[in-house]
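[Structure tokenization] protein backbone as discrete codes

[Encoding] learned vocabulary of local backbone shapes

[Begin record] amino acids and matching fold tokens:

___
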Amino acid sequence: MTRHFIWDPLVRVFHWSLAAGFLANALITDPETGLHRSIGFAIAGIVLLRILWGFVGPHSARFASFLPTRNGLRRQMTDMATGRRRVHLLHTPLGALMIFNLLATMSALALTGWMSSSGTRWGGDPVEEVHEALVAWAAISVVLHVGAVIFESRRTGVNLPRAMVTGVKSVPDGANIEA
């Protein structure tokens, strides 16, 4: 195995903090409580920090380093369909789409959560319905994300969850690597 340091501490802490915050608010906290709102504000803050980090952070954290292209998406889907093992050191094109999806969804969740709880004219049933629909979409996205991580880990031989904990991707020797 060849070890590649990829994910900096901010990206890793963001990832697991976002996961914990979303799971807490979606499954544990009562939406009418201050704890739910506080976690929502914390999520909004870390999402804003991650967006900023996506422009000023190290190469592997920058959005420009993993923008998905039509050709890249096609190659990854072809690899998956044909069983070809190509390891991406950064995010795969499909993984990058999921990142942008989750960042947008979490941003919209934070906004609609604030709108429905701020006591302003923005609140009300329509905003709460959008917020609930976004929670459902986020949950579907998280399930797809976890499934894809497991699938890609098995398909490529790279333990992706471990890489998001340690920051190091251990790539099988002789693997076809795409930077």
In short: The first helix runs from residue 9 to 28. The chain has a mean pLDDT of 93. The longest strand covers residues 2-5.
